[in-house]
Specification:
The protein is α/β, with parallel strands linked by helices and 665 residues long. The protein has 27 helices and 13 strands. It has a four-stranded antiparallel beta sheet with strand order 1-2-4-3, with helices on one face. Helix 5 packs across helix 27, helix 9 packs antiparallel against helix 10 and helix 22 packs parallel to helix 26. It is globular, with a radius of gyration of 30 Å.
């Protein structure tokens, strides 16, 4: 059920009959100004169109507009008499009889009252996309859970959804592994235990490259700090010698420079720490001295791979299956699947044609040996082929777009990628528009960073990103300590055995990480705090899963099944006798609104907010409306129906969030 759409249709019809109809240029826009009421005591929804219309209509004011609108509105079948409030708000309260009938219909509907969209779109979602040459880390959690939730939600709404995990299975990361294997690896050790050994070789090469890069950067950072400190000192002096608004302006400039100094010092500190870590390790120090030109050497190996060098291709084909097996194991644990897994290697044969096409169109030209696309709205060009002949991410993404147009012909393509790639996608979309490469609407669904308790990007003590699997293990163990606490389980009958405890802990722990991530506005950074994530109270997955388990417990205690409840309601209907029943019923009927809100701005936190509000409404209902000892059979049947619907809605909503429920907690 989508109440705002229902009201919008009625208001659109009413506006067309008003005396001022000819003075409104876009009546549908005003008819759609329906919002949930801020305070339930004033109603369920609020129409806000009278205020802006009142400014357009001659010799009138918003309250007069609202009064005429109410005269023309035909809402008797669904609403109590609308009321005008304040400067012209129209308060709308749904009739109990209307809500009760919709809930009875919802009980007989296995889609929880969600009607598929009338005009479904074909939407391709590109998400997760790890580099398979190294283990998945904490940085992959956001793209994976946000993308998975969007895919599930849009598909449930009725759209045709295609998911594609655009793997990083080509390029520099494999150049690093190949170099590490050739110079630091033991073929027999790699053969016996490929996944950890390949990851180890990647880390060694990455550390050596970082070491030599840091040595080169230290003098640059020191010079930059000295320059910024001079500018900061001068800015402070100017601020101290100024007065009034000018002084405030100069203080802000000085503060800005102070932040730049701090940032430059942090870079220098990080570079020195990188150097010190290698210098303190005799083996790595010896390797660093032996591989002084490792950065260029890795690029050479990558170029050979791009040029189809037989030896490098053979190594890539040997390593790739093991790397894929590792990430697929993590996906299995996260319960995430994809329709397609077309990595960068799939598009490699198409890249030369993309470059030639852009050159023929006059959009690409040579600059310092590289092939670049220059765009008026950007200071820096989009590089599509380096001077050594190697291609870049941009080239692959352009080839991917063309393939997707030819193969899928989507209406929308969503890229769930972190905000740091914003400029890349702005350029990509600009080139796609200039070349008419694809007809689809292109959207960069950006997101912020997972932070540690210190407010910095979450890393280990050694400075590396935390592995995703260890993060999942920690979450499951934290969940076990909370939900499998012996004091909590003592009353369960029959008792939980170890197998059930582990199942509950796994679902609660992994659900906690997903839910916490999705609960934040995706564009914001957030601090990772396991103890809060697995808490049994507050806006957590644990609380929502517990709410579902409570619904199953109530049915067991009343010795009824869902089928029994459906049969009773079909015979007698639903009747409210308590305000908490009505509040919960209205909340349940707003499920489709939450899903539509997710799609409107690609923000899963709308669905998380809905789950929490539903769990809260159910908690109040459970406290105030006894089911087992209800005064009459009719009251008990209504309450059982609300319990069944709550369980169904929470279960379905959590499933769309990628979270599994448990029957007992």
């Amino acid at each position: 059920m989508h109440f705002p759409s229902l009201f919008t249709g009625r208001f659109s019809d009413a506006l067309s009959r008003c005396s001022f109809a000819s003075q409104i240029d876009d009546p549908d826009r005003y008819a759609a100004m329906i919002r949930p009421a801020g305070n339930p005591k004033f109603g369920d929804y609020q129409a806000n169109c009278a205020m802006p219309i009142g400014k357009l209509v001659a010799d009138s004011n918003p309250r007069q507009v609202a009064a005429e609108l109410i005269e023309q509105l035909q809402l008797d079948d669904i609403c109590e008499t609308p009321e005008i409030a304040g400067p012209g708000f129209i308060n709308l309260k749904l009739k109990d009889s209307f809500l009760q009938d919709r809930l009875a219909e919802m009980l007989a509907d296995d889609r929880c009252g969600v009607t598929p969209v009338a005009s479904p779109k074909k939407i391709l979602i590109d998400y997760s996309s790890p580099n398979v040459a190294k283990p998945m880390h904490v940085g992959h959690i956001r793209t994976t859970v946000i993308g998975n939730c969007l895919a599930k939600t849009l598909q449930f709404l009725g759209h045709e959804v295609i998911t594609d995990n655009h793997l990083g299975d080509w390029g520099t990361q494999f150049g690093s592994i190949i170099y590490g294997y050739n110079h630091c690896g033991d073929p027999e050790v790699v053969r016996q235990d490929p996944v950890p050994e390949l990851a180890k070789l990647y880390r060694i090469v990455h550390q050596l490259m970082g070491y030599h890069k840091a040595i080169k950067n230290v003098p640059k950072y020191e010079a930059e700090i000295a320059r910024l400190e001079d500018l900061h000192a001068a800015a402070q002096q100017e601020a101290e010698g100024s007065e009034g608004k000018e002084a405030k302006k100069k203080r802000k400039a000085a503060e800005s420079l102070a932040k730049k100094v701090a940032s430059a010092r942090a870079k220098l500190e990080s570079a020195r720490a990188t150097i010190a870590a290698t210098d303190a390790d005799p083996v790595m120090k010896q390797r660093a001295e032996a591989h002084a030109d490792i950065g260029k050497a890795v690029l050479d190996e990558t170029s050979k791979l791009h040029a189809d060098d037989p030896e490098n291709i053979a190594l890539w084909e040997q390593f790739l299956p093991h790397c894929k097996d590792e990430i697929n194991r993590i996906y299995s644990r996260l319960n995430v699947t994809f329709d397609h897994t077309l990595g960068e290697s799939f598009y490699h044969p198409m890249l030369g044609e993309i470059v030639d096409d852009l050159k023929q169109r006059g959009l690409a030209s040579e600059s310092d040996g590289a092939i670049c696309v220059f765009l008026d709205q950007f200071d820096a060009p989009m590089i599509i082929q380096k001077s050594d002949g190697a291609y870049l991410y941009a080239t692959t993404d352009l080839a991917t777009l063309r393939y997707r147009q030819e193969t899928f012909n989507p209406d929308e393509v969503l890229y769930v990628v972190d905000a740091r790639q914003s400029e890349h996608f702005e350029k990509l979309f600009a080139v796609a528009e200039a070349t008419k490469l694809i007809d689809a609407k292109l959207v960069h669904v950006s997101f912020g960073t997972v932070l540690g308790e210190d407010g910095r990007p979450m890393k280990t003590r050694s400075g590396t990103l935390i592995g995703l699997e260890s993060l999942l293990d920690d979450a499951v163990e934290a969940a076990y300590q909370v939900v499998c606490n012996p004091d909590r389980l003592v009353k369960l009958d029959p008792p939980m055995d170890d197998q059930e405890k582990r199942l509950v802990s796994e679902r609660v722990g992994i659900g906690a990480i997903k839910y916490a991530d999705l609960s934040h506005d995706r564009t914001s950074d957030y601090k990772f705090n396991l103890s809060k994530m697995v808490a049994l109270s507050g806006n957590t997955s644990t609380y929502a899963q517990y709410s579902f388990a409570r619904t199953t417990s109530i049915l067991r205690r009343n010795e009824v099944t869902e089928a029994d409840v459906v049969e009773r309601i079909q015979a007698a209907g639903i009747t409210f006798t308590h305000a908490a029943e009505r509040a919960l019923g209205l909340q349940l009927l707003q499920f489709q609104e939450a899903l539509q809100n997710v799609y409107e701005d690609y923000r899963p936190n709308h669905l998380v907010d809905y789950v929490y509000s539903t769990a809260e409404a159910f908690s109040k209902f459970n406290d105030q409306c006894h089911v087992l000892n209800a005064e009459t059979d009719a009251i008990q049947n209504t309450r059982l129906a609300l319990v069944v619907l709550t369980g169904r809605v929470i279960k379905q909503a959590l499933e769309l969030l990628g979270i599994e429920v448990v029957e007992r907690m």
